[in-house]
Design brief:
By secondary structure, this protein is α/β, with parallel strands linked by helices. It folds into 2 domains: 15-234 and 308-316, Spore Coat Polysaccharide Biosynthesis Protein SpsA, Chain A (Alpha-Beta Complex); 236-305. The protein is 47% helix and 16% strand. The relative contact order is 0.14.
């Protein structure tokens, strides 16, 4: 017999939907309308408080996104420049007050019909509810391959992240309070949240087609996010350098023994091929090692600056 443990709520929780956007003038109105419909349905069922709301964070858009947002019945936050999706979500969590928060991308490729299931899971006692994609047929071949490789690499590196989970999740205010305390400049929320602990569960859904416009994620931005995540939560690349150094040392020993053997038997060799290969191999390893070390040193440099994670230019309906 399954026993459910419920939060001891005297009233329905206040839900804040955190919607970061960047240059989404073509789809922001549709996203607002669809999310408002979901909120109203949940309010009618008394699953969430009548005071629940949507908070849209404009991450330094250069189009007319902010002008459109100002016409909506939402809590609007405009950042002074493009700080990136991770910091825009954090701004939404820090600048709003609610019992539970659901973050979702403005393109609505994440299935908003599972929002009700997420709220139900919270009522069962879960502090974190991850939205996980179990079908990515709408994504192009490159994106699916890149995603699969990245999550497998996460597992190899010992990172405690949820495969096929992006930023679609529900968290309680208890979790949000811990996130508000974060001072990390190199922000990777899905890694931070999965390492907090607390009771969590997963809701699976099918990834949908983008409701309009073009995705802001290209090869460069995806690679940047992947490197950010790996170097923020794993020191395995540094250990990999040590392994490469040991491997090179072993190869050098073998080559030295071979050189002495050739010298003793007086066998004539040209030596060009072995020299060419060894020089390029050692040079490549050195450059790779310097690059990995530089990535970590760069992170330390940014952290020591202690600059603000985001700057708010304007707010309304606060």
């Amino acid at each position: 017999m399954k026993i459910l443990v419920y939060h001891n709520h005297m009233k329905s929780p206040i839900l804040a939907i955190i919607l970061p956007c960047y240059n989404e003038e073509k789809i922001i109105n549709t996203a607002y309308q669809k999310l408002t419909e979901i909120l109203n349905k949940l309010k009618e069922k008394n699953k969430i408080s009548k005071n629940s709301y949507i908070s849209i964070i404009d991450d330094g858009s250069t189009d007319s996104s902010w002008e459109l947002i100002r016409t909506f019945d939402v809590k609007g936050i405009k950042l002074s420049k493009n700080f990136g999706q991770q910091k825009a979500i954090l701004a939404g969590l820090c600048e709003n007050e609610a019992d539970i928060y659901i973050s979702i991308d403005a393109d609505l490729q994440d299935d908003i019909t599972v929002v009700e299931q997420m709220v139900d899971k919270y009522e069962e006692g879960f502090e974190i509810v991850y939205g996980v994609r179990n079908n990515r047929d709408v994504d192009n071949f490159f994106k699916k391959i890149f995603s699969n490789i990245y999550y497998k690499l996460n597992k190899i590196l010992g990172m405690n992240t949820i495969a096929q989970h992006a930023e679609f999740r529900l968290i309680s205010d208890k979790i949000a309070e811990h996130l508000r305390k974060t001072k990390e400049t190199n922000l990777y929320l899905r890694g931070i949240i999965s390492n907090l602990g607390f009771k969590s569960t997963i809701i699976y859904y099918k990834r949908l087609k983008r409701i309009g416009g073009k995705s802001k994620y290209n090869f460069y931005s995806l690679t940047k996010l992947a490197i950010e995540g790996i170097t923020s939560f794993s020191d395995t690349p540094l250990k990999f350098i040590s392994f490469l150094g040991l491997l090179c040392f072993f190869i050098a020993v073998v080559m030295t023994i071979y050189a002495f053997y050739v010298f003793i038997i007086d066998k004539v060799i040209t030596g060009w091929t072995s020299l060419f290969v060894s020089l390029y191999f050692i040079g490549g390893v050195q450059l790779l090692s310097i690059g990995i070390l530089g990535e970590y040193i760069g992170k330390i440099y940014k952290e020591t600056k202690n600059r603000p994670l985001y700057i708010i230019e304007e707010k309304f309906n606060d």
